[in-house]
Known about the structure:
By secondary structure, the protein is α/β, with parallel strands linked by helices. Helix content is about 40%, strand content about 15%.
Amino acid sequence: xxxxxxxxxxxxxxxxxxxxxxxxxxxxxxxxxxxxxxxxxxxxxxxxxxxxxxxxxxxxxxxxxxxxxxxxxxxxxxxxxxxxxxxxxxxxxxxxxxxxxxxxxxxxxxxxxxxxxxxxxxxxxxxxxxxxxxxxxxxxxxxxxxxxxxxxxxxxxxxxxxxxxxxxxxxxxxxxxxxxxxxxxxxxxxxxxxxxxxxxxxxxxxxxxxxxxxxxxxxxxxxxxxxxxxxxxxxxxxxxxxxxxxxxxxxxxxxxxxxxxxxxxxxxxxxxxxxxxxxxxxxxxxxxxxxxxxxxxxxxxxxxxxxxxxxxxxxxxxxxxxxxxxxxxxxx
Length: 332
Ligand code: SF4
Ligand code: SF4
């Protein structure tokens, strides 16, 4: 099975429960950013630029856990910034797991080698390592030499210790797809459990030059889709078909709500019109109908997984073909 069976079980139970209760808007993944502090300054990073003025701030452990308790999403993505710079990070991981939630732990891997000695493999815990290309490209995008080698060594160590590891790769305007194929092949040889891919999104804070526009995304992802047949992608086939222009989807901005040092970010992981004090307020007060492609000009080029993978979950039950495709994909 492609995804861990416990994740499949918990997610299916949660979705079914919401559907029986006729709840239409519910979160799937809580994006928890305890700090935006980072030990890198990657070219494509919107976070460290958007939150430059508050980058030294950190959520308390209690605030993080209150967010996990308040938001019913079964998956918590611990991200940042670099979450390994967050002092109570090990307590945070243990407490989230103790609540029966699943963790995707996003890291640039610079501190991961040592951190692995303080973390333990757990069926609900997945390391998610940022990999943007082979050595030269990865080091250029992360703007520091040596980052690729560190990430590779950390992945090897994590696999040796029995951790589940996935990687996430952003496809930028100048990404060479032959190089991406070589990267995915190398990651497969390292034994990674899953590969996530997504097009970069043009954050206002970063500028346009790095990022793909919709037609370029569709062209590049036709090739990426072909690669998904050869490598163990965790990006779903429907999302990839959307990226290559074959499937029309609207986003689900409440699917991956973000909690950071400033509050609950509205409306979505990518654009910010404000921060609310509570998850309930975010859900009630955000004018969801104002957002999405064709509704807000900032959304025009967005095809990001955090907005559209939750739509896949909503759409999947509407077509037998999609359901069958997903089932076959998950069981292979
Ligand atoms: S490692 Fe992540 S958070 Fe840090 S600068 Fe790079 S993209 Fe941003
Ligand atoms: S299209 Fe993208 S940026 Fe716009 S609301 Fe949806 S997820 Fe957010």
